[in-house]
Amino acid sequence: MLYSVARLVIAVARVDPITTDGGRYHFRYSGLRLLVRTSREYVILPADWQKGRDREIVVDVDDSTRYDLIPH
Predict the structure, then answer these.
(1) Residue 71 in this model has a pLDDT that exceeds 80
(2) Is pLDDT above 90 for 72?
(3) Residue 19 is part of which domain span?
(4) Strand, coil or helix: 4
(5) pLDDT score, position 50
(6) Which of 36, 37, 53, 57 sits CB 3.0–4.6 Å from 44 for a disulfide?
(7) Cα torsion angle, 55, 46, 27, 11, sign
(8) Is residue 16 in a domain?
(9) Is 49 inside any structural domain?
(10) Count of C-beta atoms within a 10 Å radius of residue 64
């Protein structure tokens, strides 16, 4: 799950608004897989990623985003 303070432009993910009062993050993105995390960015793929069809998604690592790994 990717959580964000502001809405991100990630068309391939499911986005759900978080309406809990007082929470830091306002959007939750699912249907994504974390490929790699560096000290500066997350590189994420759609869950059904296919070479030549889909792009990777790069999101800055800062206080406005959080990525939680959920094992399947």
Answers:
(1) no
(2) no
(3) 2-67
(4) strand
(5) 93
(6) 57
(7) positive
(8) yes
(9) yes
(10) 14
Structure tokens at 40: 């500066």
Strand ranges of the sheet holding 14-17, from the earlier edge strand across to the other edge = 14-17, 27-30, 2-4, 65-67
Integer Cα distance of 9 and 55 in angstroms:
13
Angle at 54 between CA 42 and CA 52, to 5 degrees: 125
For tokens 């939750």, name the residue: 28
Q: Based on the structure, what is the number of domains in the chain?
A: 1
d(CA 19, CA 61): 23
| Token reading at 35 | 């490929």
For 26, half-sphere exposure in the C-beta direction (CA atoms, 13 angstrom radius) is 6
Alpha carbons within 13 angstroms on the beta-carbon side of residue 46 total 14
d(CA 60, CA 69): 17
CB contact at 8 A, 3 and 28 = yes
